[in-house]
Amino acid sequence: MSMLNNFILAVCTTEKDCVSGSGPIFFCHTEEELQKTSLYLEKILDAMAHEVRPGTMILVKH
């Protein structure tokens, strides 16, 4: 039996038109707000934040 070890918990973005899906998406107005939100979620969810592209971060559980 295999176990899923790595998965995306949330997405934070400043680009409303570039992100969609069924998971939690946090829309931020500025780059500073994006960084703060990602950092807070990283600590709360015990996850890692990764920048996918400028203005978009994913939070991944490793």
What does this structure look like?
- The mean pLDDT is 92.
- This protein has one helix spanning 31-45; strands spanning 7-13, 25-27, 48-53, 56-61.
- 16% of the residues are buried.
- It is α+β, with helices and mostly antiparallel strands and 62 residues long.
- The protein is built from 1 helix and 4 strands, in the order E-E-H-E-E.
- Strands 2-1-4-3 form a 4-stranded mixed beta sheet, with helices on one face.
- The chain has a domain at 6-13 and 30-62.
Instruction: Kindly report the average pLDDT value.
Output: 92
If strands are numbered along the chain, what order do they take across the biggest sheet? 2-1-4-3
Helix content: 10-25%
Task: Tell how many strands the DSSP assignment holds.
Answer: 4
Low-confidence stretches: none
* Rg, nearest Å: 12 Å
- Taken from the alpha-carbon principal axes, the silhouette is globular
